[in-house]
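Hi R.,

Here's the input for the KG4 complex you asked about:
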Amino acid sequence: MPYYILGIESSCDDTAAAVIADDVILSNVAANQEIHSSFGGVVPELASRAHQQNIIPVIHAALQKANIGKNQLSAVAYTRGPGLLGSLLVGASFSKAFAMGLSIPLIEVNHLQAHIMAHFIRNVEKTGTMPSFPFLCLTVSGGHTQLVIVKDHFDMHIIGQTIDDAAGETFDKAAKIMGLPYPGGPFIDKLAREGNPERFSFSKPNVPLLDFSFSGLKTSFLYFLRDRLKEDPRFIENNKADLCASIQKTIVDILISKLDKAAAQTGIRDIAIAGGVSANSGLRSGLENLSQQKSWNLYIPPLAYTTDNAAMIAITGYFKFLKKEFGSQADTPYARSSF
Ligand code: KG4
Ligand code: ZN
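And here is the predicted structure with KG4 in place:
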């Protein structure tokens, strides 16, 4: 009999639940919170209220889809942090009560570790390859941009990270400046497909070592548009695809060049990407090209496991369950952390 683990993710604005049978996902359900798009970003108080409304139906749907009764569960795994505290509290409180009610172990999961652990989810056919240790992972999300050496499922070392904005945040802010909805990353990605990435160029940071910086790029994009709009108020509308393609290319180039540098410095040739921005088609194809040149073994997660999801929490829960790394009712959520 496999171990069935329920994963619960509520760190930001998506309420998500997934059921895993050992390392195979049986269901992966999420309720998105449309309410934030009119505010151009996530409103924490509204997010936690929406989690409260969504959590029970989402978990119910995940169990039903997996065709699993709650009494068959071996453990409950939940995101403890980092994230929005009010949002995390909803998932944590539900998980604690559920695990206590069922008398099964409670497992706390670090959201950033979980993004990386998504690479260890197996498909039903159990085909496909997984990165071998040690591998290098570029984790790129709305809140984080990190280069991580993964030595083991739970032995991860950050060797570079952003000193200001995250890559996803940069996509979202650029989108906001152009009047696109929140979160803007996927909109830029879509529009960029029809645009010329060489049309406009923006300043790239010069940050030492393996760290990243995106705040200068954001400002240069803002000032560039402000100047052009003075000459032509319809500048954004008339050039949207080229603007999206050009800003996307700049962000992707920054990410890829640091990843390349990290691979050269560490000598690691198993390379992975994780997090919401790893859904970006420019990043995916840019890395596919580079990995052919460099003979890397490249691991790109399926789209369903890039942006926030509970499958990644469930797989991390599974590996912790095997190690009997259980949490306690006294564990409290945390807003910030490395690992
Ligand atoms: O990992 P994630 O879902 O949440 C955090 O942990 O932050 O990442 C969300 C970020 C957002 O900034 C969103 O705009 C970005 O991922 N994103 C993308 C794409 N899909 C999601 N950015 C660029 N291209 C995409 N296709
Ligand atoms: Zn995330």
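One thing worth noting: The chain has nine helices and ten strands.

Cheers,
M.
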